[in-house]
Amino acid sequence: MGFLVYFIVLLALPLWAQFKLKRTYSKYSKVRSTSGHTGAQVARIILDQNGLHDVKVVESRGMLSDHYNPLTKIVALSSHNYHEASVAGTAVAAHEVGHAIQDAEAYSFLRLRHRLVPLVNVSSNASWIFIMIGLFSQWSGALLLGIVLLAAGVLFQLVTLPVEFNASSRAMDQLLSHNIIRNEEERHAKKVLSAAAMTYVAATAVAVLELARLLLIYSNMNRS
Fold first, then answer.
1. Which UniProt keywords apply (predicted)?
2. pLDDT of 22-51, one tens digit each?
3. What are phi and psi of 155, to 5 degrees?
4. Of 83, 38, 37, which is closest to residue 59 (Cα–Cα)?
């Protein structure tokens, strides 16, 4: 019974976070910003105010596909956020520019996350191969190797949290200091950013829980 509850929690956490994000984003993407600036314009204003004239703002395909690419120095905004003047689009655009500012300032956690990417790309694919071998064959050595590889991914998730929260904090500071949002919009923008942050919190919680479960299995395997 406990095993079933564990997997229900494991599935429910990210699903709940995604549902909350989509519901919050959908609500505030229909609320027009008083500044009248589209997401693309908001991003450009903040970038220029911070001297990041070399960072481009482009349109990205797909819903909530917004991101910042530190290699190409590009802020990519999904179509609705790029073209429309909404509170949600304003918040998301400012958040992605927050990452560009982090990059320009060599923010430590962002640099660490970038360095972990090559390791995680390899370990995330290989970890479960060794974990499954260890579980089915009761070979603790293979299981331990899989756990170590999986731990790299968990570390990446943990490092991502301060990166995302810091980008949101920077976003709000920029929106307020440049008078891009006013009055109730501040509270609404925070709701959008908080909902987005919860998806990262949920993903990290799931990763930590699964790592803890596998460590417990490994410990029991060695004892037996």
1. Membrane, Transmembrane, Transmembrane helix
2. 999 999 999 999 999 999 999 999 999 999
3. -60, -40
4. 83
φ, ψ (nearest 5 deg) of residue 25:
-65, -45
For residue 98, count other CB atoms closer than 10 A to its CB: 26
pLDDT of residue 104: 97
Helical pair 108-137 and 87-104, crossing angle rounded to 10 deg: 100
Place of tokens 């942050």: 197
Neighbours of 45 (CB within 10 A): 19
The amino acid that residue 146 corresponds to is G
What is the distance between the alpha carbons of residues 7 and 2, in angstroms, rounded to a whole number?
9
| Residue 46: closest CA among 107, 94, 91, 96 | 94
| Cα–Cα distance, 89 to 78 (Å, whole number) | 9
Per-residue burial over 49-67, b if 16 or more Cβ lie within 10 Å, else e, is: ebebeebebeebeeebebe
Active site residues: 96
- What DSSP assignment string belongs to 73-107? TEEEEEHHHHH--BHHHHHHHHHHHHHHHHHHTT-
Q: Can you tell me the distance from the alpha carbon of 201 to that of 13, in angstroms, rounded to the nearest whole number?
A: 9
- Asked if 163 and 107 touch (Cβ cutoff 8 Å), the reply is yes
- Check whether 7 has a pLDDT greater than 80: no
Residue 151 has pLDDT above 90, yes or no: yes
